[in-house]
Amino acid sequence: MNVATLRGLHAFADLYVKGRLAEDFTRQYGVKPCREYGVPERMGAVCGGKELVELISKAERGKLSRKKGGGPNHLFISMALVNWRLYYDEKTRPQSYVALDRICIDLDISGDCAQDRLCRAAKLGRLKNALREKLRRYRNTLWAEWTGFKGYRLCLWLPRLLPADRIILEKIQRWLAKGLEDWLDTQVVGDVKRLFRVPYSINPKSGERAAVVDHLLQVLSPQEAAEHLQSLKPLDARVLERIRREAVLETFAREQEKAREVKAPEGRRWEARRLP
Questions:
Q1: How much is the CA Rg of the chain, to the nearest whole Å?
Q2: Cβ(264)–Cβ(270) below 8 Å
Q3: 48 falls in which pLDDT band (50, 70, 90)?
Q4: Least enclosed by CB within 10 Å: which of 41, 82, 156, 195?
Q5: Which of 70, 183, 55 is nearest to 123 (CA)?
Q6: What string of DSSP letters covers 47-115?
Q7: Residue 69 exposed, middle or buried by CB count within 10 Å (0-12, 13-18, 19+)
Q8: Residues 62, 249: Cα–Cα separation, whole Å
Q9: Which pLDDT score, from 0 to 100, does residue 69 have?
């Protein structure tokens, strides 16, 4: 990378890691937001743009690989903010994520033709058309990232920090995926520990560089991507509140259903008992 590109990558990485609510997170939880990375498993935290750029550089040189001379490594980053000091130590993986400042979904063509060039091109073309239409409609809110191989990642900023509640996350992801359900990776819906490929790192499977793209799916330089992300508006707070209320009602309904399944012993008055 030349000096200008590297400077742009630092500007992008700092915004990407810290997000839009870093100060809120620090004020609320007492620590700066860190984003977990994995090669390919989870093994550390990234707390600033400089650290992320260093990781990208090391991964491309193969320095993080367990095998010598392996070339570029897979490099992933979490979409969740994690209080590393409270939720991680050398003996355990992080089990609890505190809050989210963005919501993302993974959009991939099906694996049954991932290795067939013609099949992959046809399915990827349909995905691109649907994604362009989605980005056109929500041009000021959504952004997309090309993963470098067989799909995209679609994201939006949140207007405030959102507790990492699985049902609320699932609801927002479903809202985000409307019109793109055919390509949604359903295994990740509601998964707060999901890792995604780092933009501007090389995908070892294809040799192509993952990147942020515009509403026409044209690749943006790191500097352009930073400006693009800065210009985006967060999800409307009223929409977030409506989704949150729906999630609360759904959680309550599930709890009531569980309670109805637990009946009093025979011979006693039948009534629902709340699970411990």
A1: 21
A2: yes
A3: confident
A4: 41
A5: 183
A6: -SHHHHHHHHHHHHHTTT-SSTT--SPP-EEESSBB-HHHH-BTTB------EEEEEEEEEE--GGGTT
A7: exposed
A8: 48
A9: 55
- Token duo for residue 253: 């309904």
Contact at 8 Å (CB) between 17 and 52? yes
Q: What is the pLDDT of residues 137-192, one digit of tens each?
A: 999 999 999 999 888 999 999 999 988 888 888 889 999 999 999 999 877 788 77
Contact assessment for residue 198 and residue 75, using Cβ atoms and an 8 Å cutoff: yes
- The two three-digit tokens of residue 31, written as one number: 């620590």
Tokens of 131: 């994604």
Neighbours of 167 (CB within 10 A): 16
For the residues of the chain, what is the DSSP string, one character each? --HHHHHHHHHHHHHHHH-S-HHHHHHHHSS--BEEEESSSEEEEE-SHHHHHHHHHHHHHTTT-SSTT--SPP-EEESSBB-HHHH-BTTB------EEEEEEEEEE--GGGTT-HHHHHHHHHHHHHHHHHHHHHTTTTEEEEE-SSSEEEEEEEEEEEEE--HHHHHHHHHHHTTT-GGGB-GGGTT-TT-EEEPTTSB-TTT-PBPEEE-TT-PBPPHHHHHHHHHHPPPPPHHHHHHHHHHHHHHHHHHHHHHHHHS-PPTTS--------
Here the tokens at position 249 are: 């009602």
Contacts of 163 (CB under 8 A, 6+ apart): 98, 99, 100
Q: What is the pLDDT of residues 94-143, one digit of tens each?
A: 456 778 899 999 998 876 665 677 887 888 899 999 999 999 999 999 99
